[in-house]
Amino acid sequence: MSCGDHEPKVDLTSKQSEKLENIKTSLNAEDIMLDKVKAVDSDKIIENSILIDIINSSVVSIDGPSLKGYCENILIEFVKSCDKESYYDIIEIRFSEGKKIKIYHDWDSKGFRYPKSMIDNIINQLNSPRYLLEQAYLKYSEQEDYDSLIYYANGLLDENPILDVAIKYRGLAYYQLNKFEKAEIDFMHARTLNKSDIDNPMNLAILHGDKENYKVGLQYIDTVLTLQADYPKAIYFRGVYKYKLGDKKSSLIDLQHAEELGVSDATTFLQFEFN
Asked: How far apart are CA 170 and CA 152, in angstroms?
């Protein structure tokens, strides 16, 4: 990564540099050029700003419909790498295509500018309990360290005892530890605090299925499907539970529908149980 000739210097932290290097690799880009952002109506430099210019990516076409999505994803990933001391007032993400020869430059560039309000919104989301718990769950699940996830969730609940997402993730940790009674209590509690979170009735449906309480599981699946009529996981488990209860004709319809919705487990179940 480099700055353009005679352009303002852009200082990065090691974390930011590593993030941009990863972005460069994932996009198979020739280079990433850094600069300060210039005001729209003049050549005046906006000091607390950064322009990230991805050069000759073989993955992203600057005329393609996915350009905006790539720019927004890069924005979020880059903001994740920023410490409080290195937040920007404006970030511009740009893709450039062309060739650079000593006496000849031919570039075509397109991208988007993101103001402080949008950057602040991303920062707030990244610091939200929901995001932090999602990241903690991914981390501790990979390590199979569910006791630490419970400890982490309890720390958040000490500050806010009715934080439904912390109760839900603690329930998931209890479930993974086969502490089904504690898991059920947490899923029920989280559900009373947040009726719109589809995870809680779905988790309760799966938990009761594990305990072979298929009729109760089906009742929770009905709740899930009132929130989202074609929720693939719910359709799949409804088919499985109907099969377990002996209703194979109706089960087959659900499992085939789940397969159409992309549930690979439905394909496996159909192959083993209906062939």
From this structure: 9
pLDDT at residue 86 in the model: 72
**DSSP conformation class of 145:** -
Average pLDDT, integer, range 51-76: 93
d(CA 178, CA 181): 9
Starting at the earlier edge strand, list the strands of the sheet with 2-3: 2-3, 31-38, 45-55, 90-101, 104-115
pLDDT value, residue 7: 54
Q: Whole-angstrom distance between the N-terminal and C-terminal Cα of the chain?
A: 57
Which candidate, 40, 61, 63, 53, places its Cα nearest to that of 92? 53
Quick: pLDDT tens for 66-90: 999 999 999 999 999 988 777 899 9
For tokens 């839900």, the residue is 168
| Spatial distance between the Cα atoms of 237 and 157, rounded to a whole number of angstroms | 31
Q: Identify any residues that bridge with 90 across adjacent strands, giving them in sequence order.
A: 49, 115
CA distance 138 to 133: 9
Rounded (5°) CA angle 236-241-246: 125
Rounded to an integer, the average pLDDT of 40-49 is: 86
Mean pLDDT of 131-139: 90
> What tens digit of pLDDT does each residue of 185-231 get?
999 999 999 999 999 999 999 999 999 999 999 999 999 999 999 99
Residues sharing a CB contact under 8 Å with residue 102, sequence separation 6 or more, in sequence order: none
- The span from the CA of 206 to the CA of 218, in Å, is 9
